[in-house]
């Protein structure tokens, strides 16, 4: 994720990260790092298998649902079990709760629904995912510029990366 205080863009290593060890400036890390907690840290339902260093996945929430960030070095990690099954289950729950589940690999985004996935390619920070719904079922998904979004049209899912 981007760290504004460090001018660190999304999908770039933090200069303070020491792989295999951790944060070199942990005691004085920026406030946005200090306040960040992935879902694995705060949700007891996610067991040790979901620990990011093991799963290669970082879970966060957005205003629209759940974001599953996949280590680009392991782009298919989310397809392994138990992750794929849990992601599908969240997608099924999301279909009834108007909540999206998006897998993010680098800049590529994949909208996951109970019975299919929509590979949306690269989605920029100024773009939004717009779902086409039949009832609660997602039957299509496209990417549009946020500025082109017509208020009150199809529901947009906002990437937060
Ligand atoms: S916690 Fe430390 S290593 Fe991680 S992004 Fe913040 S400053 Fe960088």
TrEMBL record:
InterPro entries: UPF0153_domain. This is Uncharacterized protein. It comes from Bradyrhizobium centrolobii. It comes from the Bacteria.
């Amino acid at each position: 994720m981007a760290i504004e205080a460090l001018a660190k863009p999304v999908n770039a290593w933090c200069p303070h990260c020491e792989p295999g060890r951790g944060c070199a400036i942990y005691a004085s890390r920026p406030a946005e790092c200090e306040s960040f907690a992935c879902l694995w840290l705060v949700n007891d339902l996610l067991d040790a298998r979901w620990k990011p260093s093991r799963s290669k996945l970082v879970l966060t929430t957005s205003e629209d649902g759940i974001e599953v960030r996949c280590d680009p070095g392991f782009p298919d990690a989310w397809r392994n079990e138990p992750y794929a099954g849990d992601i599908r289950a969240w997608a099924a729950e999301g279909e009834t709760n108007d909540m999206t589940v998006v897998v993010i690999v680098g800049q590529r985004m994949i909208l996951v629904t109970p019975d299919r996935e929509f590979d949306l390619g690269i989605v920029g920070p100024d773009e939004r995912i717009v779902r086409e719904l039949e009832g609660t079922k997602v039957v299509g998904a496209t990417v549009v510029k946020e500025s082109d979004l017509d208020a009150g049209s199809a529901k947009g899912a906002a990437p937060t990366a």
